[in-house]
Amino acid sequence: MMLLKSISEWIKDRPRHGWFTFTHDEVVKAFPEMTSGAMSRALTREVNKGRIMSPLRGFYVIITDEYALRGTVPQAVYLDQMMQHLERKYYVALLNAAEYHGAAHQAPMSFSVMIEPPSMRNKKTDKYHTLYFCKSHIPEAYVERRQTWTGYINISGPELTAVDLLTYQDKIGGITRAATVLAELAEKLDFSRLDELFVKCVPVTSLQRLGYLLDVVLEQQAVADSMHNLIMLAGDTLRVVPLKPGKPADGCELNARWNVAVNQEIEIDDL
User: Fold this and answer.
1) What pLDDT digit, counting tens, does each position of 44-66 carry?
2) End-to-end CA distance of the chain
3) Is the dihedral of CA 114, 117, 120, 122 positive or negative?
């Protein structure tokens, strides 16, 4: 077995064995005789030299050669390992999830991750920006686990992605942007393959807004019908909701099928 004399050599050796992240506890285990001060200084030197990054206290990502010029590693490379370290359920969400499903109208400027409580603080540096969104329950049945070259990553399925885009429309640039992304995502949607439990774990108001957009704005009747059937199967009552939350809807046209008060004109951006 190769004897590694320094933390720098230990870090350099890990990718050769398929390990691209490590924790502070792993360093302690590998160098049991090193003082905490010396260990801290050695890790700080590696960060300063651009060899590793630390998106989370006690968790490190190795900046391999392909990312050396960027000086940072994309979140998708290490997110799953980091969440396993934290023992947290998660999925990549919103515009980033839509991008995985081929609806990449514009490259997202940040990386959105959905988690269960407790909340996590957003992480922003000059090279990357991670946003954490909290929901009371991660519906794992509607989350896809995909293989990557460094492991795996959890991504919201297309239907969950579509609903989240409406639920968090104010976080992605508004309902028009949501509709623009949905125009590309629609071909991946099929609510007939889901069960009624899906309706129970997402806001019905978001389903109503999504249904209106699919049905009227995007003219995706088959997809809209499959979602409407699912809502009826779940036995939910559709109360009147405004298309754009927080904007007055008095006197606006009411779409009877979805019970949506159309208080916002939607113009899809050029694709």
Assistant:
1) 999 999 999 999 999 999 999 99
2) 56
3) positive
Q: Is the domain of 43 the same as that of 81?
A: no
Strands (E), 47-120: 52-56, 59-62, 90-92, 111-115
pLDDT digits (tens, 9 = 90+) for 86-106: 999 999 999 999 999 999 767
Q: Which tokens in the block code for residue 122?
A: 């957003």
Q: Are 16 and 27 in contact (CB under 8 A)?
A: no
Residues 109, 168, single domain; the answer is yes
Length of the chain: 271
- Identify the H or E element spanning 143: strand 143-148
Q: Both tokens of residue 82?
A: 């980091």
49: its two tokens: 């030299």
pTM: 0.93
241 CB neighbour count, 10 Å cutoff: 21
Tell whether 197 is covered by a domain.
yes
For residue 221, give the 3-state DSSP assignment. Answer: helix
